[in-house]
Amino acid sequence: MDSKAGSTVAPRSAASELRVLLDSPEIAGLVCDLANTRWTGRPGYPLRAMVGVALAKSLYSIPTWTRTVALVREHDALREAIGGECPSVYAAYRFAAKLRVYSDLLDSCIARVLERLRAERPEFGRDLAIDASDLPAYANGQRYLSKNGPERKRYSDPDASWGHRSAVSTRKGGGGFYGFKVHAAVCARTDLPVAWQVETARAHESSFATALLDAAKDRGFAAETTALDMGYDTEAIHAACEARGSRPIIPLKQTPGVKRGDHRPPECEHGTWTFAGSDPARGAAKWRCPTGDCSPASRWIKADRLHPLVPRESKRWKSLYRGRGSVEREFGRLKNEWALLPLRVRGIERVRLHADLTILAKLASALAKTRTGPLLA
Ligand SMILES: [Zn+2]
User: Which residues fall inside 5 Å of ion ligand 1, going by CB?
Assistant: First the structure.
């Protein structure tokens, strides 16, 4: 057995886990949908075996098809789980090409898994957290041709670009990297992803928050709140969240208005006004004179970035913002335990397929666990 693969993961039951996934109605549906396309590639292996190898790659946290095929070939229980015969590495490459062509079928499969997870736990996806994370390219990422030399013009992955790690991340520090970013909306209660998007690293994360909210909505998630870090604190993102019926939970960026104190609650001769509830339909929050001696004693303040409907001073805001940790935790798990990294494919379409298959394996495993026990992240 491949020693690296063996040491990284391999829960004893991985082969039976793989069989359970392949037998689940959601994954079996994908196999069936792919069969119905009457793919006319060279005669290969049964689609169940191909989907099985793709899932094994993530379950065993193996970066390449070559090593995955080598593992399945030598592992009797795994080979049995996928139907008895192990496909060749070339068949795996051809299968990956087919999946890129039929990405809509893969999308439907992911949507079915998410729908099932939501049926198991209605609070799944009610509070979301959105963030982006770096995916360094499988390419020469040396920015300069030599020390103090000219910047490199050609890279082995032309879709990748230089980007910055999140400026507000305190854990790894900033710094540039060459590659892609995965932007994701994650359920803050279960840590499971509900929508994601891979883009070249240069693209700024705030450009994708709205698309992720829409993708989550298309998959049936009506998020009541969305937590994001300070990098997303713009009027446009606040408005986009509110327009989709989701309260934005975003720390305040020190803009000139904030320095002027425009975000502070109203004040009067009786003191600082207090928050008295908000009305999402009206798009405003009610604030009240502390003694009630003003006339009127309360007034509505329209929601915006400086005055969100869930005020930043409130307990609820603080508790919801803690949920933002879910998205960082999930990126870590996907990268370290499910082989989202290191990338061993080039080109954005291949990187997107890799991310989709990795996250599908993770979600389908979580669903399998709900069928036998509690939902685990
Ligand atoms: Zn007053």
Answer: 268, 270, 289, 294
